[in-house]
Amino acid sequence: MARHIDILEHPQTAIEVATATLAEGLPIGLPTETVYGLAADATNPAAITRIYETKGRPRFNPLICHMSDLAMAERYAIFDPTSRKLAEAFWPGPLTLVLPLKPDSGIHPLATAGLDTVGIRVPKGFAGDLIRAFDRPLAAPSANTSGKISATSADHVHDDLGERITLILDAGASVVGVESTIVKVEDGEMRLLRPGGLAASEIERVAGKPLKRKKKASAAIEAPGMMASHYAPGAAVRLDATEVSENETLIRFGTPDIAGIEKAVAVLDLSAGGDLSEAAANLFDFMKRADATGATTIAFSHIPDEGLGEAINDRLRRAAAPRE
Ligand code: TXA
Ligand code: MG
């Protein structure tokens, strides 16, 4: 059973125990502002193998490597001017940049799935402090079984992976609630590989140029693992609901008119006031709660595709995708 440490009450113990656990090559449950990560030493092949095994994740799906700051990131990857501008504007924060790996960077090919690029992110808060203390990049996917809903609290990590890891650091609920936005710059053009916790419009404003959306067909190759059914609760998921049927739990955004709402097993309000940041922060926790109501289907009312709505709708489409 995993040991829990509250990082607000015991920050120093958390750093000491976490660095010792990481040095042993063991993955830990690590809070970040987006979601909780399952973090391990990105230079240690045994440690990275444990991440894939703990999650049941396919090894062709590369991991994001987390750094303490831009200076640390520059030891491992080559920055073009646009990527540097984005890093300076948004790090620490919910932005991952895919960049060419430096030769002999020390990041193990298991972390990058053998690619000559690396996805790098500088997380906000405690995770950055821990990486600074450990002085090695941490590979960290979301701390959940592959294909399931991402963890946004230490309890989520505990319920899913608590038997399989030795340490979970607890910083309360993740503030952003959805994973980082992934961007790759090629020949000066910015491509959005995954919408996430930093709105595309913010990135375009700083860069002064448009973010190109990926074509559906090439996406599987570009960001492997991004296409299949993912974020799947036990219940079926139905989107853009305008009415509710028996045995359905409704997750609502704003207060739209929903016919048959009195039939719902339960009604959860992602954000009654229609705030997309609040909705993103609540999303994964509410999906788990809705699942726990025992409904056969979770119905979502329409969520606009602007701002963080793009990331929310991306996750919901995957949650609703046909399962294997
Ligand atoms: O917010 C986040 O990004 C969280 C927290 C823990 O930092 N991490 C996260 O990691 O969501 P993960 O492993 O669930 O998602 C990583 C995504 C995958 O879709 C992977 O294919 C893509 O990043 N990726 C990683 N390295 C890549 C690379 N070199 N080229 C293209 N895609 C890459
Ligand atoms: Mg994930």
From TrEMBL:
Q: Which domain of life is it from?
A: Bacteria
User: What EC number(s) does this enzyme carry?
Assistant: 2.7.7.87
Q: What class of enzyme is it?
A: transferase
InterPro entries per record: DHBP_synth_RibB-like_a/b_dom, Sua5-like_dom, Sua5/YwlC_C, Sua5_C, T(6)A37_SUA5, TC-AMP_synthase_SUA5
SUPFAM superfamilies documented for this protein: YrdC/RibB
- Chief subcellular location: cytoplasm
Gene Ontology process terms (BP): regulation of translational fidelity; tRNA processing
One example of the protein's molecular function in GO is: double-stranded RNA binding
- Residues noted as binding ATP in the record, renumbered to the chain: 57, 61, 117, 150, 194, 231
What's the stated role of this polypeptide? Required for the formation of a threonylcarbamoyl group on adenosine at position 37 (t(6)A37) in tRNAs that read codons beginning with adenine.
Family statement drawn from the similarity comment of this UniProt entry: Belongs to the SUA5 family.
Q: What is this protein called?
A: Threonylcarbamoyl-AMP synthase
Q: Which organism is it from?
A: Rhizobium hainanense
The opening ranks of the lineage are:
Bacteria, Pseudomonadati, Pseudomonadota, Alphaproteobacteria, Hyphomicrobiales
